[in-house]
Amino acid sequence: MIGTSSAVLGALFGLDGKAAAVTGAAEGIGREIARHLAGAGASVAILDRNSAGAAEAARAIGGNAHRAIAIGMDLSDEISTVDAFREVTLKLGHLDILVNCAGIQNRELITETSAELWDLLQRINSRGLFICLREAAKIMRAAGKGGRIINISSMGSIHPVMPGLAAYNASKAAVNALTRSAALELSGDRITVNAILPGAVATVGAGKAPGPAPSGRVVAGLPPLGRLATPTDIAAAVLLFAGTGGEAITGQTLIVDAGYLLS
């Protein structure tokens, strides 16, 4: 007999007793993800190079009687990243969920893109994410209790929608490939690895990204659902992968774009 709806939802998506780390969670999509994970019962570590913003986000989440801590981390620096994950385990005691959300979206037309800009995007968005995934996987494997790794990629990694994002899209395509390879290698440890591919989402970070202003299909009109995806939409997808209900899903890329790819 199926129990009450709240009990069913709790069994599938509740995260009581779980510890999660979210990179790039000082603002935008990452902050909303951290808020939802805490709301589902997880203790949350907010990892961000913006230490002040991370601390403020942790205070806001903790103010709702949830446990949230802030840890400074420079994604471009391997030592800083390794140290941050060591601090996560020291302060939370364990790590069950990693959401790799940190990244940059510096834009430039492909004929104007310098090798330095290309290297910067790869260093942050793919190399930095890889180091986070590697360190979290080590922690989860040593604990022997499985885990969830959720990478935030981009719809542009499989279908470009505007000029100026060649380097960004390539870095996110690498994330998709890493997701599948890691899912295979870590399956024996009951660690699932999936990616979420947001479409256009209006965030402060995207608005501040240097380079040409967004143009082309992405601003030609609303997608078929009549609105853009929101940070809350992305956070809801994270909850699907993070909870018990997602334990048989691994190596997948889930597009959350309000139907952009249908148009």
Short structural description:
This protein is of the alpha/beta class and 263 residues long. Helix content is 44%, strand content 14%.
How would you characterize this protein structure?
The chain is α/β, with parallel strands linked by helices and 263 residues long. It has a single domain (15-262), classed as Rossmann fold. It has helices at residues 5-13, 28-39, 51-62, 78-92, 115-143, 166-186, 204-208, 231-242; strands spanning 19-23, 43-48, 68-72, 97-100, 147-152, 191-198, 253-256. Strands 3-2-1-4-5-6-7 form a seven-stranded parallel beta sheet, sandwiched between helices. Strand 1 (19-23), helix 2 and strand 2 form a beta-alpha-beta unit. Helix 4 (78-92) packs parallel to helix 5.
List keywords for this structure.
alpha/beta, single chain, globular, 7 strands, Rossmann fold
Topology:
Elements: H1 5-13, E1 19-23, H2 28-39, E2 43-48, H3 51-62, E3 68-72, H4 78-92, E4 97-100, H5 115-143, E5 147-152, H6 166-186, E6 191-198, H7 204-208, H8 231-242, E7 253-256
Parallel strand pairs: 1-2, 1-4, 2-3, 4-5, 5-6, 6-7
The tally of strands reads 7
Q: What is the percentage of strand-forming residues?
A: 5-15%
Tell me the series of helices and strands, N- to C-terminal: HEHEHEHEHEHEHHE
What value does the average pLDDT take?
92
CATH architecture: 3-Layer(aba) Sandwich
What portion of residues is helical? Answer: 40-55%
CATH class: Alpha Beta
Morphology: globular
Radius of gyration: 18 Å
Uncertain spans, ≥5 residues at pLDDT below 50?
none
At the fourth CATH level, what is the homologous superfamily? Answer: NAD(P)-binding Rossmann-like Domain
- The strands making up the biggest β-sheet line up spatially as 3-2-1-4-5-6-7
Report the major sheet. 7 strands, parallel
